[in-house]
Amino acid sequence: MTTYYQAFIANEFTDAAGGDRRPVRNPATGAVWAEVPECGPEDARRAIDAAEAARRDWAALPSVKRAEYIYRIAEALRTERDHFARLLVMEQGKPLAEAGAEVDDTIRYMTYAAEAARRIQGEILPSDLPNEQLFIYRVPYGTTLGICAYNYPLALIGRKLGPALVTGNVMVIKPHEATPVTGSEFCRLVRDAGLPAGVVGLVTGGGAELGAALVSDPATRLVSVTGSTRAGQAIAAAAAQNLAALSLELGGNAPFIVLKDADLDAAVEAAVVARYANAGQVCICNESVLVEDSVAEAFTEKLLARAAQVKLGDPMQDAGMGPVSTEGALSRIEALVAQSVDAGARVALGGKRGSGDFASGNWYEPTILLDAQADTPAVSEEIFGPVMPVVRIGGLDDALRITNARPDGLSAYLWTRDAGSYMRAIHEMETGTIFLNKGISGYVQGYHNGHKRSGLGGEDGIHGLEGFLQKRTVYMQY
C-alpha cells in the first residue's frame, strides 16, 4: 500500500497540473511505499507566482515577527521528531539514530536562524561632503529557490529555509526526486504554523525539466543548491540568463591524511566513522585515506579490524549500516570499484552488493581498497558511498600535491601532532574546511563552503545568513 504526499503551493496541498505521479522507493527493500506529484513547468510557475505575491508583505514584517514563525515550525518538528525520523529511514535509508540526529540538526539550523533576527546589520559610513550621510542596508533578494540533495532531505530544507525566511526572503523548495516525502510533510508544519500563503512552496518531481523551469524563471533572484558539481554547473548556466545569485554546495573528494606522528587509534576510529556514516553519503565524508609509508602497515591493520565491525543492518532497527539511497548511486559505486580493481587496487574488505537478507534494495558492503594510487578511479572520483581506498604517500608534500591537484576542494582531514605541518596545511590546502586531528562534524555557527569546483557560498553561521541578503546603498543629503 502506498501513501500519496502532495506538493505545496500557496499554503495548499496540490497535485501536479497534469495529474501525473512519481513513485518513491524504500532503498532498503526497493519497494514503492509512497507517491508524489510529477510536477512540471506549469507547477513551477504556480509556485513562483505564489511566492512573488507574498514576498513584499513578508519582507515588510519585522525580522523578529518572521522569526516567530520559524520558532513555531522548529517546535512542531521537535514534537514530531520520531515521525520524521521514520520517514527519513523509509525514503533515504539512514539508520534510525542517524535519522533522529538529522531531525535534531534541522531544528538546530532553524532555531539558529531565528535567533539571528536581531543581528541583521547595516552600515553607516562617513560622507565626502557636508550635510550628507551614507548608509548601506542589507535587504532580501525576494523569491529564492532551494534545491536539495538526497543525502539529508530534511536538514537541507531547514538549513536553507531558516536563513532565507528570517532575512525576509520567500522560498520555493525542490527536494530530490528520490527523497520528497519529508519535504511534503515538513510543509504541513509550515501550514499549521500559520505562515502567509506563498512564503514557502514545494514542488516535487524529476530534476531536469522542473529544475530548469524554476531556475530560469525571471522572478527567481537567488538559487541555493546542494548537489553534484555537474548539477551545479547546469544550474549556474540556467541562472546566468537572469543573473540570479547563487549559493552552490557541490561535490567534494575529501582526503583523510595520516602522517607518521598521528595518533593512529584515534585516526582509525575517525576514518571509519567519516567513511561509513550515512553509508558514505556525506559531502564531507572521508573519500580516501592518504597514509604515510612508515605507519601504513600499522594503520591499515587497525583500519581493517575496525571496519570489519561495520555490518549491514536494518536501518529501522539501528542494526548497522544502511543502504545507499538510489539504484543509480549503487550502480555507480559498483562500477568505480570494478574500475579501480582493473587499475590495480585490491579489495581487502567487502567489495560487492549485499546478499541474503540484503539482496533486495540498494545495499553495498563496507569496503576497503588497498594498493590504490592517486589516479585510481575510486580515489580521483567522488565515490559517495561506503568504499574507502587507501593510498600510501611519502609525507605531507605528497598529500598536498594530491589534494590540490583535484578540481574540487570541499573538505580534508589531517592527522598529525606537528604544529608546522598543520599550519602549513591551513595555509596551502585548497579546500573550504579542514578537520585537524578531528573526525567529521559541522556546527551551525561555522561555515560550510567549497573552493574551486566544490561551489561558492554557503548557509551556515553568520556568513550563511548574509548570503541571503543583498546590499542597498543610500546617499542622503539633509
TrEMBL record:
Biological process per Gene Ontology, one example term: gamma-aminobutyric acid catabolic process
Signal peptide interval: none
UniProt GO molecular function: succinate-semialdehyde dehydrogenase (NAD+) activity
Top-level taxon in the UniProt lineage: Bacteria
Family matches, as Pfam families: Aldedh
Record-annotated Aldehyde dehydrogenase domain positions: 15-474
UniProt keyword annotation of Oxidoreductase present: yes
Annotated active site: E249
UniProt KW keywords: Oxidoreductase
Family, as annotated: Belongs to the aldehyde dehydrogenase family.
Entry protein name: Lactaldehyde dehydrogenase / glycolaldehyde dehydrogenase
UniProt source species: Marinovum algicola
